[in-house]
Amino acid sequence: WLSERDGWRHLYLYGSNGTLERRLTRGEWQIEKVIGVDPSHDHAFIVGTGADHRHRLLYRVSLSSGKREPLGQSKRGVHDGFLSPDGRHLVDRWSTRDQPPRADLVSTDGTGVNRLWESGDQLEGWDLLPVEAGSITADDGTELYSLLIRPRGFEPRKRYPVVLYVYGGPNSQLTADRWGCSVHNTYRLFAEMGIAVFLVDNRGTWGRGHGFETAVHRRLGGLEVTDQLAAARWLQAQPWDDPERIAVYGGSYGGYMTLLLMLKAPEVFRAGIAYAPVTDWSLYDTIYTERYMDTPQDNPEGYRESAPLTYAENLGGSLLVVHGTMDNNVHIQNSLQLIGKLAAADKEFELMVYPRTRHGVRRSQFAPHFHRLKVDFLQRHLLGE
């Protein structure tokens, strides 16, 4: 049984009568899932973060002593496992930032690993720009994980524009050590254009314990914005960054964050792209919103302060808003209300509405158009083309 008694998700053993027998694991790391228990009930098999919270590793845990042993060949990356019925083998499906997905057959006693399949053959000959892992320091000293993709032929003495890519919502971790697929390749596209890309996981995101995630309770968009502005200041302090050419880009919760950053710190960001953004949490699903914000009746000030609509008159940089008319997650009324506020404040902005398109604009039939739209916008506002 998983519990967060000390702020980290750990494994506890309960008797058949429901009474707690003992705690099995402990420490400042968390268990992501329990894969299963062997038929003899000697060991449980779990996925956990380990010492580096950007990793998800497979472990065997003794149900008698709580001893934890890593399984599999790689001691980094993001792993997931499937236990065989006899408890003797696991299918370990995993990847890293620089290792495309593969699967291994792992003996649960730790004695052997056999390759099942691997991907990435189609990348043979491609010179993909590396994704660099790092960290920055928040205003209060908290370490925040980061990723950076530098432009090809990077010259430290040259000044580069930067896109700060944001998501920042609960249950997310952009900096996890996993293969980024088409998302990382979008960042690489920007870098090939001569634009660096920077990502930071702010407080409120997943993998760092209950306290790190719940720091934003009742005040979504508060600490998240503070931490992303710390990321912007870190960029401005780099000798290779052009502080006059920083843009922000994100979708869904990232679109929400893009708007807040542009509206709360208009002096920092020259441009921003927000697709499918939440603009007021009172317009979003109650099952999600009230988990983090409580109800509008219980937290009216929190709802007001967290809404981009509240700050629409502050817009200073160039903004592109994108939404699908059939978005069944973040309803288009979010963008329509934003449009009304921006127009009433006599603010200029760009808008693209995709008909009969749901929430995943970047995966819809209009994906090529959407990607070209972003490239054109960044060329005009960051590269002056």
What does this structure look like?
The chain is built from 8 helices and 19 strands. With 385 residues, the protein is an alpha/beta fold. Strands 12-13-15-14-16-17-18-19 form an 8-stranded mixed β-sheet, sandwiched between helices. The protein has a 4-stranded antiparallel β-sheet with strand order 4-5-6-7, with no helix packed on it. Strands 8-9-10-11 form a 4-stranded antiparallel β-sheet, with no helix packed on it. Helix 3 packs across helix 4 (253-264). The chain is globular, with a radius of gyration of 23 Å. The termini are far apart.
What is the typical, i.e. mean, pLDDT?
95
Low-confidence runs: none
Task: Enumerate the strands of the largest sheet in spatial order, edge to edge or round the barrel.
Answer: 12-13-15-14-16-17-18-19
How many whole angstroms does the radius of gyration measure? Answer: 23 Å
Strand percentage = 25-35%
Q: What is the molecular shape?
A: globular
Percent helix range: 10-25%
Please give the oligomerization state of what you see: single chain
> What is the number of helical segments per DSSP (H or I, 4+ residues)?
8
Structural class: alpha/beta
Distance between the termini: 57 Å
Write down the secondary-structure element order: EEEEEEEEEEEEEEHEHHEHEHHEHEH
Q: Work out the number of β strands.
A: 19
Described by strand count, sense and barrel closure, the largest sheet is: 8 strands, mixed
